[in-house]
Amino acid sequence: MRSLRRAVGLRRVLSSLRWYVRELTDESAYDRYVAHVRRDHPDASVPSRRDFERMRTDRQEADPRQGFRCC
Amino acid sequence: MRTANVRTIVVWSLVALVGAAGWTVLALSRGEEVSAAWMVAAALGSYAIAYRFYAKFIAYKVLKVDKTRATPAERLNNGIDFHPTDRRVLLGHHFAAIAGAGPLVGPVLAAQMGYLPGTIWIIAGVIFAGAVQDMVVLFFSTRRDGRSLGQMAREEIGPFGGAAALIATFAIMIILLGVLALVIVNALAQSPWGTFSIAMTIPIALLMGFYLRVLRPGRVAEVSLIGIALLLFALVAGRWVAESSWADTFTLAPSSLVVWMVAYGFIASILPVWMLLAPRDYLSTFMKIGTIFLLALGVVVALPTLKMDAVTDFASRGDGPVFAGSLFPFVFITIACGALSGFHSLISSGTTPKMIQKETQVRMIGYGSMLMESSVAVMALVAASIIDPGLYFAMNAPAGVIGDTVQNASQVVGSWGYQITPEALARAAENVEEASLLSRTGGAPTLAIGVSEIFSQVTGDGLRAFWYHFAIMFEALFILTALDAGTRVGRFMLQDMLGNVHRPFRNVSWKPGLVITSAIVCGLWGYFLWVGVHEPLGGINQLFPIFGISNQLLAAVALAVCTTLLVKSGRLKWAWITGVPLAWDATVTLTASWQKVFSSDPKVGFFKQRQVFQDAIDRGEVLPPAKTMDDMHTVVTNSTVDGVLSAVLALLIVVVIVDATRVCVRHVRRPALSTLSEAPYVESRITAPAGLFPTKEEKEEERRAVASAGSRSSAGAQ
């Protein structure tokens, strides 16, 4: 019983760690975008992950102030 | 009347006591060595109190943050750059964006005046100025759909002040890039180990870029792990290279490094973002967060003792070898990032406001992140103060002053009152497997020595050289990323400005325009880098004050915009919140500019310096530290450029402040004349806690929101 609870606790810690890393690195950007399009624009087509990631870097290319870092 | 419960009072009294104990020990101990623990106690105690009381007061009483008001992230959510981001994630993003080489370099240089002035300014500065600026800019930009500082200056102050702010930002960017590149050149010169491992980051980044673009798009975490593993391997391999026959190939003189650096900046900035910039950015962010975390752990575990004096004689005499000038005003411009940094206002307006979930979170994101950066600056100061002061001065004084032999350096440093034997100097270099540590100015090598000292107290002496090069790599990595990203931002501003003259420039993807503007920006910062490397008086010594002045002048622009906005939005009574920091910052910076332009001390005043060297040239004399007539002419040219630049920057900022004052006075006299371009109120539909840990009420609110959303959706299904 106790080891079961510990295993559940450990899994929770690992999954929240995974969530944080994915969010911080913006690896979750695609999932977020898909959810956004499905919810707010149900008729629009959803881009593939490859196309989405390209679109994202192209946006940064067009306005380098996005994601700029300081000294 | 509101009453606080007993537990709260006891806890906060204890926190106050810890902070006060730290300050007392730091302030009262003279002559004996103090543990860094006291500095940590003073810092953390003060931060906690400032965050709990002052930041809360500003957020709720002055700004009146409104949790029912939807932020741009919620209203304009497009799933890409506007989207409500979890506050803990945004804290990480914002911190990674504001913390860079700045808080690591400035405090190291300022340690020449002793650790106490730097500590006081870092902690008091962040609490009353730096963190306030970041939070207030973030708040106002959030109320304006994430407008940039430049746009806010134009809209709220006027076209004149706005244009001055824009030109100042561009000039500051160029100087920043030149100085950062100089820091790296000084760290990598004659160091095959460092040069090799930094060079290897380019193929590693290209590989990562290819992986993300072609093989597995968007898998950032896994590619970053691969990248970091390769990076650490490159670091270990650097030692093998340095000991092999390839060493000569990677042993570069400063002047060849300049060429490499400018070429890199130019090529990297015209390549697509995905090839180099994006993957490098992932690498440097991971390295940054990881190393800062390790360093904090190392300082707390090792608790080293501070060997530097609390206040050195250079503080009052103003003839320090690292940078000239006395404590006031020069400590306050040398330490910019970590106490008050104008550059942060560019992050706090723009990127972060588009992602913040709730207005109430500006305190945690804006104020909190800046407190974290300030603690990085404190750690850098600790790292610089725990190494032997003799070694510190031998590393940070220009070659023109201490010569290029350990005997000579030992003698000169000894004459300042810091004894170190030539053998000890040679051994220090040997321990980190460098040919020499003399005149490794710029802060990065000194920091690396301090870091290797702290880490090897934890891991044992065998890894000292590895930790030294680890720290160099860590700084070089994000400075190179900054060169690339900064060149792009500078180019973007230039394209915008030139677009007024020749229309096609405005199209940012017009290739010829892109190449031309990139070349201009690289040429400009490359000029300062070149000058810095060839300056007989020492590049950091001459250029760092201009960098500090320009960064603090940008802070003056940001604070002027904030104060104007406070006045115009009916918060005149609270205008001192940013008005007093503005007055202090303007005083410090304009005094420094004034001294740099008009001082009759040739070590401080650029024009006096010019005059002294020009007179000597007219007499046909060569003045030390110049060795030839060419050196003499170099000094004359450089001091003229530096002097004119200091004057122009100061004038631009005076224009912004005067224009802002005009707008404020007009508002007070005739409020009807002013307009406030705030986005209209829209009610928020999301609930989110304000601070790191949700309060009991916030948890309750969250539960209610979930329940009502559940009943709504089930009602919709029927």
Question: Would you give an account of this structure?
Answer:
- Chain A has one domain (2-62).
- Helices cover 69% and strands 0% of the residues of chain A.
- Chain A is built from three helices and no strands.
- Chain B is mainly alpha-helical and 718 residues long.
- A two-stranded antiparallel ribbon of chain B has the order 1-2.
- The longest helix of chain B has 41 residues, at 629-669.
- Chain B is globular, with a radius of gyration of 26 Å.
- Chains A and B meet through helix 1, helix 2 and helix 3 of A and helix 4, helix 10, helix 13, helix 16 and helix 23 of B.
Oligomeric form? heterodimer
| Count of DSSP H/I helices of chain B | 29
The helix/strand class of chain B is mainly alpha
Low-confidence stretches of chain A: none
Number of structural domains of chain B: 1
The coarse overall form of chain A would be flat
The CATH superfamily of chain B turns out to be Amino acid/polyamine transporter I
Averaged pLDDT of chain B: 93
Question: How many helices of chain A does DSSP assign?
Answer: 3
Calculate Rg of chain A over CA atoms: 18 Å
Please identify the structural class of chain A as seen in this structure.
mainly alpha
Under CATH, the topology of chain B can be stated as Amino acid/polyamine transporter I
Give the distance, in angstroms, between the N- and C-terminal Cα atoms of chain B: 49 Å
Largest interface: A-B, 37 and 57 residues
Tell me the β content of chain A: under 5%
User: How many separate domains of chain A?
Assistant: 1
Q: Write down how many β-strands of chain A occur, each being a DSSP E stretch of 2 or more residues.
A: 0
Tell me about the largest β-sheet of chain A: none
